[in-house]
Each structure stands twice: as C-alpha cells, then as structure tokens.
Amino acid sequence: SLSFKMERKTIDLDQGWDYMQTGITKLKRILEGLPEPQFDSEQYMMLYTTIYNMCTQKPPHDYSQQLYDKYREAFEEYIHSTVLPALREKHDEYMLRELVKRWSNHKVMVRWLSRFFYYLDRYFIARRSLPPLNEVGLTCFRDLVYNELHSKVKDAVIALVDKEREGEQIDRALLKNVLDIYVEIGMGQMERYEEDFESFMLLDSASYYSRKASSWIQEDSCPDYMLKSEECLKKERERVAHYLHSSSEPKLVEKVQHELLVVYANQLLEKEHSGCRALLRDDKVDDLSRMYRLYHKIVKGLEPVANIFKQHVTAEGNALVQQAEDTATNHAANTASVQEQVLIRKVIELHDKYMVYVVECFQNHTLFHKALKEAFEIFCNKTVAGSSSAELLATFCDNILKKGGSEKLSDEAIEDTLEKVVKLLAYISDKDLFAEFYRKKLARRLLFDRSANDDHERSILTKLKQQCGGQFTSKMEGMVTDLTLARENQNSFEEYLGNNPAANPGIDLTVTVLTTGFWPSYKSFDINLPAEMVKCVEVFKGFYETKTKHRKLTWIYSLGTCHLNGKFDTKPIELVVSTYQAAVLLLFNTTDKLSYTDILTQLNLSHEDLVRLLHSLSCARYKILLKEPSTKTVSQSDSFEFNSKFTDRMRRIKIPLPPVDERKKVVEDVDKDRRYAIDAAIVRIMKSRKVLGHQQLVSECVEQLSRMFKPDIKAIKKRMEDLITRDYLERDKENPNMFRYLA
C-alpha cells in the first residue's frame, strides 16, 4: 500500500483574492444578464475551499479579518460602479422598476457571496461578535443605495397611489415590491417603512381626502356623501391588501375617516333636506344603517346620531300626545276616552317602529337603546286631558281584558299587546299609580264577571312581575286567587243550604268572600237593610262560622247587585240594580209615596249617596219612581212614588248608577302609600348608615324609590321632619345638615 503525506501550500492574500475575484466577476456577469454559464459544483467548492484555507493558515497567514473587509468592499465596488449609475439615470416608474431589479439582484449576490465566505460566518464572526455576512451585505445596500434614493422613491410611489385614487390603472405588483424594500431594509424592524414612507403617505392621504370632502360636502346629499365615503374606505382597505403593509390599515382608515366623516360630521348629519333628521322622517332604513356603519368605528361618532334619534322620537311622541290632547279638548268625554286608547295604541306602534331601527339599523347599540328609552320617558309621562299616562295604560289594559272591550283581538294579538304594554310601563315613572288604577279595574273585572279570559289575566301579571318585581303584583295575584277560592266557598255554601233546610235565605244568594289586604279599599257604611236582605246576611254568617271563628266579615254593599221583579201595569220587568238601589225600591212594597226625608231616615244613608240613588231611579233614562216636582235634579223637599205605568221593550233592564270619579281617590291612596314608602326607605338607609348628610340621604332615597315612582324632594324633606318628631332620627347639634339614626 502507498501512503501519501500532503503538504498544504500557504496561499498569500493577493493571490487568494485574485482567485476569488474571478468568482465574483462571474457572479456579476450572471446578475447583469450577460452570457455566462451558471456555477457548477466544482467551481463552487474551489471558491469555498480557497476561503477556508486562507482562514485556517497559521498566523500571520490567517487572513480572516482582511477577507471580512474585502467581502464588504466587493459589494461597495459593485454598487458604486454599476448599481448607482443605473439608478441615477432613471426617473419615476422606470426608476422604481430598476430599484426592484437591483434589490432583487443584490439579495442574490449576498446569498452567493455569503456561501463562498461561509467559513467566516461560522467561526471568525461568531468569536468576535461581528455583524454576520448577510447583514453586512444588506447594510451596504442600505447605506449606499437606499439612503440616497428613499425620498425620491417615496414621492414616486405616492404619486402612483394618487393616480390610482383618481381611477387610473397602475402596476400594483410593482408598488408591492418597492414597499417590500422599505420593510426588508429594516431587517426585522418597521422604522424605515414607517418613518421614510408611511408617515408621508398618511399626510398625503389626509390632504387628498380633505380636498375631496370639502367639495363633496357642498355638492352631495347626505346619502350620496355617505356612499362615496363608504366606497373610499373600502378602496383604501383594498389598497392595503394589495401593496401597503398590513400595519398601515388602521392608521390609513383613521386618517380617511377623520377627513371624510369627523371633520364634516355636523354639516353632514344636519344637512337640511337629507341629513339624519330627514332620513328618520322618510324612513330611509338603508341610509341610516350606512350612517351607523360609518360612525360606529369613530370614537364618540355615534353620539350626535343618537341625539338626533332621541330628538326625532321625542318630537313624534309629543305630537301624538298633543293630537290626543286636542281631540280630548274639542270632543265629548266618550270620544276623548276612545282617543286616549288610540293614543296608547299609537305609542305602542311608535315603539315597535323605532325598536326595529334600534335593532336593525343601529345593531342593538346601547347608545340607541338609551336614546329610545329617554325619548319615551319624556312623552310617556305627560298627562292627557287630566289623565296621567299610568291611568291611560291601566284603562288600555282593561279594554283588552274585559268582556266586550273596544279591542277585538285574537289570543296571540292580545298576548303580544300585553307584552308591549308592560314594556311601555318601564318608561312610566309613577308605576305605583299604574298599579293602583290597574288594581281598581282588575277588581271590577273580577267581581262583576267582566274578565274575558283568566289566562290573559294571569299572563299579564307574570309579565308585570318579571318587569317590576314580586312586590308589585303580590296584591293583584292575591285578588285573582281570592276569586277562585270564593267560587269554592260559594259551592260549599250551596251544599250547606242543601243539608240544612232550616237555614233558608229565601232568595238566591251569592256571596264573594275576599281578603281585605289584597283589594282596593271600598267605602262601606251601615245601611238599614230591608228585612229580606237581613235574613240573607244572618244565614251566610251562620254558614261562615262553621268554617272559621277567627275571621270577621265586613259587608261591602256598594259592590253588590240585586235582581228585582218589577210588577208594572203592562208587564213584569226584571230590574238589575245595586244593593242600595234595591233597598230604596223595596221601601215602596209597603207604601205608595215617600218623601226624601222618609227615605233618608228609614235607610240611614248620607245625603250625597241618597241623591245619587234617587237620581238614578227617577231622573235618568228609566223612571221607576215618579218625582214631585218633576225636575231634573233631586232636592231634599221632593217626594217619590212607584211608577206603575213604567214599561220598556226589554224584559230585563239594568239601571246604572251615575259613575263616581275614582281618580281622586286613587291618587289620594297612592299618596298615602308613598308617604309610608318614603318613611320606610329613610329608616332603612339610616339604620344601615347610622349617620348621613342631608343631600346623600335624599339622593339614596330617590334611588331606592325610583323603581316605583319619582319621589318629590319636598315630600322627602317633609317625611324627614316627621321622622324627627317621631324620634326615629335626630339632627346633629353642630351641623344641622347631618342626621343620626336613633335606635
């Protein structure tokens, strides 16, 4: 076998570099597109090995540092001799194309040279912590080419962008490549792109759109202006997608929005025949949706839109209230009440309409929910012809729920309407007043069997409970339950009568037993009942005592009804009357003629009540009694006799009593309850806080009570004074504005 021992010859610097220079020249020729074959693997290996050898020779022949410097000089020489002259003779788009080509070539050159010099990267550079070859190559381009040209390049790019904005076709791919240079030259940082290009591009965009906006705002209607703005924003986003860096999108969009939408917001929204008010007036749903889309991305951009929306809804609502007020003033009472019902129906429709706007045009945004709520609170708390909205709403419900009400609706429609009424109630500040009116009317429906459907009665109570809490509906729920219990009670009474022949009321008797606390308070006074009725009362008492000894029955005759047989000359007629009317009529069974005073003494009634009763029987439509003298009013000197000549085409007639205005009583009852509620709130607050300033106590009190009513500040102060006299609170000796709770 033969053994070889190779002696490696030392390569000196000039000789080695001359050899490397041939490789570099070949590379430049390839890059310049001159006829030159590609590197084969042998050539590549020779170049690599030359560098390897020159770096691994023993000192002083280790040429690592010199080769590191020559690597950089190779780029500098090529840039000065070839690249810069080629770029300096071209302008605008041609310069951009040349730059893209030169940058691409430069990157190829860096890739090849750093492969030849790879050994430097691995050992020499790592040990000395010098910039790596790749970075050195790119830095040469940055320092010599980019720094000289970036300003001219930026101007050329911006000019092309503006051309495109004006509708011309441009080479987007070229711009993408140019802008990539700004990004890549930063070597992982975005500063070059941001400072040398983006900041100027944003300024130019702002002034471009500022010019556009100033002429569009003069020429275009609000919808057209918004269409153009939306289109511009879309185009700018596309621009980012095609050639700008993605980080520019929010900044560019913000600039365009500012110039098109923020600067001219007021002028645009307030445009006389096409601004936000006109769009709402003419139901321009698409334009309003566009307005929302454009402005919801802008900080506080929606506030003026929501404000106009609130003003518009308020004006529409006020107009409805005014219309109802005018009709009520100009017409008789019965049309007025119909008008008030029409008003509630229209307010519900108004709410439906604008709720659709809030949900669909304004995407359920809280600002618009708030605007709608505030608008409705303004006009839903106005009075119409002396009736508060709380009363109107209760009457509206009554009309839907009672038999033969003016609203003829299907079950679904009733459910739907009740749902909407409860929503309206949210806007009414005197919810306690609504509850009291509602209870009064519910009582009439239940007691006089006027309720059209039990399910609907329960359903609205469930809805009210969800909206206002259990306390709000507990009494009403109690009333509905009472009626069911009362029916069972009546059945046991009839059973009791069947089993006890001795207990016989002598007439058909139905008694409804109610729980005092649930029902409205009724004026009840002891009347001297006719003997027939006294017997009934005694028999029922006997039955009731078999069931319980702990409850006291109080009879409310004012709510009772009687069916009497009137034996008139021509034919008998059944008269449906109240218990009091019956008591008056039964007096005439034993005597023909009675004076006002006789009746008053025998029945033990007040003047006020007796006048009402006698008026209904002698001065109204059905004259069962003849009055002397025959005038239209009842006075204390009149006398009355049974009118045997009375007749009517019907076999059964109902003789109504003139209605009593319940409004005053309801308001008084509610005021009384409010005093208790304020007392309770003050005591609750003071109990937990012990010491509190006047202002804070008042505001906490208002906050606690506002779910049911808007307490009057004067009323709160009055209650505070009252609680001081009753020793619940005391004023601080030093500071009369501080209160202390007395345990």
TrEMBL record:
The keyword Ubl conjugation applies. It comes from Brassica napus (Rape). Residues 388-618 form the Cullin family profile domain. Keywords: Ubl conjugation. This is Cullin family profile domain-containing protein. The keyword Ribosomal protein does not apply. Belongs to the cullin family.
